DNA sequence: TTGCTGACCGACG
DNA sequence: CCGTCGGCCAGCA
């Protein structure tokens, strides 16, 4: 076994881990970066399985296009995602990231 | 195999 | 503002 090519999920995890501290990105941006724009749902699915990974995946830095914490329900408690983000300096009000554009980070920025 | 679901997104009315 | 629909693709009964 040689070379198992990195699957879609693997790439998602890798990208998510590269999200800088205090920054956030979207499912769509990741999907687009992986060349599967439109399959943002797969990114969400990958996040769902992310807990299965040995290396922790900062899924709390991944939100939907509106900067809404849609996946907060999957963190065990709905307040975990918000708390983690606020600890990184991201203001969250009503599950909505404030100044979202200012915190937004795209994997396309990777050099 | 089919059919349904899902942490999405954009479009339509 | 709200509800609905189609598209995308992986996992599961």
What does this structure look like?
This protein has 111 residues and is mainly alpha-helical. The protein is built from five helices and four strands. Helix 1 packs across helix 3 and helix 2 packs across helix 3. The protein is globular and about 40 Å long. The N and C termini lie far apart (30 Å). It binds a DNA duplex (13 and 13 nucleotides) through helix 2, helix 3 and strand 2.
Summarize the structure.
By secondary structure, this protein is mostly helical. It has helices at residues 8-17, 27-33, 40-49, 78-87, 100-103, and strands at 25-26, 62-63, 92-93, 96-97.
Name the features.
111 residues; two-stranded parallel ribbon; 37% helix; DNA-binding
Mean pLDDT: 92
Distance between the termini: 30 Å
pLDDT < 50 runs, ≥5 residues: none
**Main sheet properties:** 2 strands, parallel
**Strand portion, in percent?**
5-15%
Count all strands and give the number. 4
Name the shape in a single word: globular
Count of DSSP helices? 5
Q: In terms of structural class, how would the helical and strand content be classed?
A: mainly alpha
Strand order of the largest sheet: 1-2
Q: What is the element string, with H for helices and E for strands?
A: HEHHEHEEH
What value does the Rg take, in angstroms? 14 Å
What percent of residues adopt helix (DSSP H or I)? 25-40%
């Amino acid at each position: 076994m040689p070379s198992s090519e990195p699957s879609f999920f693997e790439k998602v995890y890798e990208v998510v881990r590269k999200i800088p501290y205090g920054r956030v990105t979207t499912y769509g941006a990741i999907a687009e970066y992986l060349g599967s724009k439109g399959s943002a749902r797969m990114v969400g699915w990958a996040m769902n399985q992310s807990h299965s990974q040995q290396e922790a995946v900062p899924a709390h830095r991944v939100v939907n296009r509106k900067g809404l914490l849609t996946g907060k329900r999957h963190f065990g408690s709905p307040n975990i995602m918000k708390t983690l983000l606020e600890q990184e300096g991201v203001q969250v009000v009503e599950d909505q990231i404030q100044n979202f554009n200012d915190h937004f980070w795209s994997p396309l920025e990777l050099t």
